[in-house]
Amino acid sequence: MNLPPYSIFPNIIGDKVSLRQIQPTEVNGIVEISYYNAIQATAVEQAIEMQGKINKDYTDGNSIHWGIIDNLTDKIVGTCGYYRGLDKGAGELGFVLLQQYRGQGFMTTAIALAIEFGINNIGLKRIWAETTQDNEGAIKVLERLNFFKIADLDDNGIEYEFISRRYHS
Ligand SMILES: CC(C)(COP(=O)(O)OP(=O)(O)OC[C@H]1O[C@@H](n2cnc3c(N)ncnc32)[C@H](O)[C@@H]1OP(=O)(O)O)[C@@H](O)C(=O)NCCC(=O)NCCS
């Protein structure tokens, strides 16, 4: 296992999108998709405070949170990361796109990069995501990337796990 924090924050460059550390100046553009402990920010100050907590979780080795960057414009279109389980060799993925960037394949591409990093660099033995039965967009992203439903949870929740031959070999 190679848990965070790393000597250099891992920026991952893909063809369509890149994953990189969110800059303080970018937070005002992602207020509506800033969450901490499932609470959504309603003001930029709150989003900045949340970003501070997220950075501390990274420094403490408990999570890694990336901004998703559209390589064509260099603009942040969403966020994703691993937010729980790292100490047990597992990673719970979370992901969200700004509304105007949905439906263009940004998240599927970003999560593919995050999975690759999780397996090859962190050394995760398991990757999972939790969503709800009515979250069609999230389910499509997960199923497109070879996640399979493994459990029904309380309150309409569902748990998906990434299954790959390479990962289990
Ligand atoms: C979940 C969420 C990220 C999905 O967003 P999305 O835009 O549907 O996902 P992608 O960026 O991967 O785009 C996929 C869509 O773009 C289309 N697309 C266009 N170009 C594409 C490409 N190159 N690659 C893949 N898909 C492409 C796909 O056909 C798909 O459209 P469809 O749903 O009509 O089939 C978004 O709805 C969201 O942020 N929701 C709120 C947060 C949330 O629920 N998070 C999940 C909690 S675990």
Write up what this structure looks like.
Keywords: Transferase. Pfam families: Acetyltransf_3. The radius of gyration is 15 Å and the shape is globular. The chain has one domain (12-168): Aminopeptidase (3-Layer(aba) Sandwich). The strands form two sheets. An eight-stranded mixed beta sheet has the order 1-2-5-6-7-8-10-9, sandwiched between helices. The protein has a two-stranded antiparallel sheet with strand order 3-4. It contains four helices and ten strands; from the N terminus they run ββββαβββαβαββα. The model has no long low-confidence stretch (mean pLDDT 95). It has 169 residues and is an alpha+beta fold. Helix content is 27%, strand content 31%. Coenzyme A (COA) binds at residues 94-97, 102-108, 129, 131, 135, 137-138, 140-141.
Give me some keywords for this one.
single chain, 169 residues, alpha+beta, Aminopeptidase, 10 strands, 27% helix, globular, binds coenzyme A, Acyl_CoA_acyltransferase, transferase
Mean pLDDT: 95
Can you identify the CATH class? Answer: Alpha Beta
Query: From the coordinates shown, what is the CATH architecture?
Result: 3-Layer(aba) Sandwich
**CATH-level-4 superfamily name:** Gcn5-related N-acetyltransferase (GNAT)
Morphology call:
globular
| Estimated structural class | alpha+beta
Rg measurement, Å = 15 Å
SS strand fraction: 25-35%
Report the strand count: 10
When the domains are counted, the total is 1
Q: Number of helix segments?
A: 4
Gap from first CA to last CA: 16 Å
Keywords: Transferase
Domain N-acetyltransferase: 17-169
Organism: Pedobacter hiemivivus
InterPro entries: Acyl_CoA_acyltransferase, GNAT_dom, N-acetyltransferase
